[in-house]
């Protein structure tokens, strides 16, 4: 494709390379380094004048450093006369801080949106935002892609009894996500109502729906310390589920997450590669990965060609 450049930040270079390979392009030359005082320095190693530039940087790893690196890369391309700069952010940072849920709490997702806009981003491509209203924090176009096509494909290919399964949301907020998948598979859905004492600590869970003598598939947008999904798995098993799977778009897996998964009753915990999982998989055999580089690559191709990206919500071949 002419007049297009793809650059990778340092957060997830493997995914960036897969996206470039699927588009038949080479990653642009960029050097990122830190000064001795830990300031980030970025050098774009080739001309971007008049080019349609895509910068791939996921919100993972050293999140604050990687976010700053992305902002600097966007600004560097803008002042080098790129015609358009699109930030491809598979996992949007600070997405859970999307509302003012207590006195004096910040809405940090809005702050990140402002920073991206001020840096010069013309367009954002992301995946499975924690809350859809984050798109409204921007005054520039935002394409929120969904991992659903990859999830459906994995279920049909890896769960032999998928016709006798129930898709379960571990909280009420994910009801729309699970009903969409359940409708596509023509199976039932359920949800778990949870009450929290504080962040990352669930007090009580109530199952709404039937999983008795069925395969239960927990579906959520992300898992961090995995306390919720592990408690949910125990709840489903005690309610009569024959087997329990978890399918998550963003596998953050911080703190005690890996040990919790290893000790939980999951047959498998399936995540996409919006976040690198190689190190986590070495310590947990239950983790499996769905490659979503095709969805992101197709979104880039369609954006570059001025085509609709909404088609990708359910029809991308993997």
TrEMBL record:
State the source organism's domain of life. Eukaryota
Cofactor(s) needed by this chain: Mg(2+)
Print the keywords alphabetically. ATP-binding, Kinase, Magnesium, Metal-binding, Nucleotide biosynthesis, Nucleotide-binding, Transferase
Q: Which GO terms describe its molecular function?
A: ATP binding; kinase activity; magnesium ion binding; ribose phosphate diphosphokinase activity
Q: Which reaction does it catalyse?
A: D-ribose 5-phosphate + ATP = 5-phospho-alpha-D-ribose 1-diphosphate + AMP + H(+)
| Pfam families membership | Pribosyl_synth (PF14572), Pribosyltran_N (PF13793)
Q: Name one GO biological process term.
A: 5-phosphoribose 1-diphosphate biosynthetic process
Q: Does the keyword Cell membrane apply?
A: no
Keyword NAD appears in the UniProt entry: no
Q: CDD domains from the entry?
A: PRTases_typeI
Q: What class of enzyme is it?
A: transferase
The GO cellular component terms are: cytoplasm; ribose phosphate diphosphokinase complex
Associated pathway = Metabolic intermediate biosynthesis; 5-phospho-alpha-D-ribose 1-diphosphate biosynthesis; 5-phospho-alpha-D-ribose 1-diphosphate from D-ribose 5-phosphate (route I): step 1/1
Segments forming domain Ribose-phosphate pyrophosphokinase N-terminal: 4-120
User: Might you give the EC number(s) for this enzyme?
Assistant: 2.7.6.1
| Function of the molecule | Catalyzes the synthesis of phosphoribosylpyrophosphate (PRPP) that is essential for nucleotide synthesis.
Q: How does it assemble?
A: Homodimer. The active form is probably a hexamer composed of 3 homodimers.
Similarity comment: family membership: Belongs to the ribose-phosphate pyrophosphokinase family.
Q: What is this protein called?
A: Ribose-phosphate pyrophosphokinase 1
Organism of origin is: Myodes glareolus (Bank vole)
């Amino acid at each position: 494709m002419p007049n297009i450049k793809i650059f990778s930040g340092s957060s997830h270079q493997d995914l960036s390379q897969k996206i470039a390979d699927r588009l038949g392009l080479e990653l642009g030359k960029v050097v990122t380094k830190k000064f001795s005082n830990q300031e980030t320095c970025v050098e774009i190693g080739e001309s971007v004048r008049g080019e349609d530039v895509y910068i791939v940087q996921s919100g993972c790893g050293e999140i604050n450093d990687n976010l700053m690196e992305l902002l600097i890369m966007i600004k560097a391309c803008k002042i080098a006369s790129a015609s358009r700069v699109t930030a491809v952010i598979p996992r949007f940072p600070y997405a859970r801080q999307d509302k003012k849920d207590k006195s004096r709490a910040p809405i940090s997702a809005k702050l990140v949106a402002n920073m991206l806009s001020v840096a010069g981003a013309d367009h954002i491509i992301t995946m499975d935002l924690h809350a859809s209203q984050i798109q409204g924090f921007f005054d520039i176009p935002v394409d929120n892609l969904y991992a659903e096509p990859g999830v459906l494909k994995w279920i049909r290919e890896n769960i032999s009894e998928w016709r006798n399964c129930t898709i379960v949301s571990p909280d009420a907020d994910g009801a729309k996500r699970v009903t969409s998948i359940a409708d596509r598979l023509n199976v039932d859905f359920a949800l778990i109502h949870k009450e929290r004492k504080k962040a990352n600590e669930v007090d009580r869970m109530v199952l709404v729906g039937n999983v008795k003598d069925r395969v239960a598939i927990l579906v959520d947008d992300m898992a961090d310390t995995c306390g919720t999904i592990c408690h949910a798995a125990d709840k489903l098993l005690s309610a009569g589920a024959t087997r329990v799977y978890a399918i998550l778009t963003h596998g953050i897996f911080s703190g005690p997450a890996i040990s919790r998964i290893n000790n939980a009753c999951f047959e498998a915990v399936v995540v996409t590669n919006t976040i690198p999982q190689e190190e986590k998989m070495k310590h947990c055999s239950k983790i499996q990965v769905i490659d979503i580089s095709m969805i992101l690559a197709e979104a880039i191709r369609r954006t570059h060609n001025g085509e609709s990206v909404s088609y990708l919500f359910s029809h991308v071949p993997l």
